[in-house]
UniProtKB/TrEMBL annotation:
Keyword Lipid metabolism: no
Gene source species: Aptenodytes forsteri
GO biological process: leukotriene biosynthetic process; peptide catabolic process; proteolysis
GO molecular function (one): metallopeptidase activity
InterPro entries: Aminopeptidase_N-like_N, Aminopeptidase_N-like_N_sf, ARM-type_fold, LTA4H, LTA4H_cat, M1_LTA-4_hydro/amino_C_sf, M1_LTA4H, Peptidase_M1
Positions annotated to bind a peptide: 222-227, 519-521
Domain Peptidase M1 leukotriene A4 hydrolase/aminopeptidase C-terminal as annotated: residue spans: 419-563
Official protein name in the record: Leukotriene A(4) hydrolase
Catalytic activity field: leukotriene A4 + H2O = leukotriene B4
Subcellular location: Cytoplasm
NCBIfam families in the record: leuko_A4_hydro (TIGR02411)
Cofactor binding annotation: Binds 1 zinc ion per subunit.
Amino acid sequence: VLDTKDLRVFKVTVNGQDAKFVFGENHSFKGTPLEITLPFELRRGQEAIVEISFESSPKSSALQWFNKLQTSGKKHPFLFSQLTFFFPPLLQATHCRAIFPCQDTPAVKLTYYAEISVPKELVALMSANRDGEMPDPEDSSRKIYHFSQNVPIPCYLIALVVGALESRKIGPRTLVWAEKELVDKSAYEFAEAEAMLKTAEDLAGPYVWGQYDLLVLPPSFPYGGMENPCLTFVTPTLLAGDRSLSNVIAHEISHSWTGNLVTNKTWEHFWLNEGHTVYLERRIGGRLFGEQFRHFQALGGWRELQNTINTLGDKNPVTNLIPNLNEVDPDVAYSSVPYEKGFALLFYLEQLLGGPDVFIGFLKAYIQQFAYKSIVTEDWKKFLYSYFKDKVDVLDKVDWNSWFHAPGMPPVKPTYDTTLANACVALSQRWIKAKESDLGSFSSADLKEMSSHQLIEFLALLLLEDPLPVSHVKRMQQVYDFNAINNSEIRFRWLRLCIKSKWEEAIPLALKMATDQGRMKFTRPLFRDLYSFDKCRDLASKTFLEHRASMHPVTSMLVGKDLKQDQ
């Protein structure tokens, strides 16, 4: 029995003999099981080669086909796959089955080999090692690319992209790929990749995948990044021009150990992938930019978690670290809970068990113990207890039940060094407390000592409070000129702040950001805020409908729900 979704199957053979096959009952978002009857009895140890002739649907939920106008170069079409959509109920249903028949679960790992035929002016890439290319013997206008992935992976990590792509070498094992218009900018932005890889190897053990390439996708890519092995996919919204958003690269690099090598067996245990990856990402940041920076990022993550739980509700079962995915409301979006609640647990344990140097020893041993396997939280916890067998009394004091199975904020808050956050808090408090008569006291000098990370945090703190009076955001624009900043994380929070304060001049800028790119982290909140602002509700809906066709199908579906277009 194999999983399929929207596939047509023409023929199945087993060891060359025709085999009978039928489709089982259709399960809405899960698709349809393909049941194959073996034409002979298999003996123990006998090899069976099952060959399936099939085709995917043009509407496949796993593939996005762009016409040439949706690309940067406007000359050639573009295709990319995205097999994971992390929001219930699709959390359990990775979308690999919408490309080919497979055992579509992270519990099963496989190696793969592929030959991809494409028009010769385009390039094909996969989440695998590139094994060369050759002219297509059957069609002189095409060529064939060969790929192999010899490390066993769950099928949600199979990835394919085809487009007019160019590459630049940015390290001994790293090329950055993008359309011509973005490739040099991308090479500059991600130049720290090798330093991050070396740091990660030092922390987590050898990098087993050979190549580590980066691919910058068209703007409608719905995520910040996707950790496809050998070929991380990233959004062009990371191209800030100052390398300040490279923590996303550190995150995707970290997945080479936690997620891709040690994998959650079911999506309920998604925190094992993401909590450990955020922990490693921040350890890399700490090594490269100092321990105060790591604590600053960690504290920002705690605030992000508070934000998410305020939005979802502190009794909502989706805020459990290990949610029961059968009970979850399908409209509740993918959230920061597995990332930030998972990280908070690991950061708390680090402080409890003897500090960063002690805890990284555990993490390295954990990766070694479970590499190439898929596991659940109980496996992780048993290993934690055996590794720290001299500290069982300390571990027994942890309120495991609340950490794993209670909704809302964690039962304990770790300790944070607040040095870098203090400036953000102080400035945000000045704005919150300022009366009209105090607005003259603000000047561009307020930001002189602040990094772009601190600007993001300053704006995030203001977003947690009641909206500022419109006079305040106008003054903020006068003295800080946030409209001129292209860093997507700063711009996103600034525009949300303006819309929440009902500053009408920001409406066109917010609509432009919501439609110029399709990263769900930005597009959904911007559209939701615009829709909540009575002055532009109709314009928000109209703009969405005009741009809907060029959005990623999943982004389009979710924004449609947010704007009450699709009941």
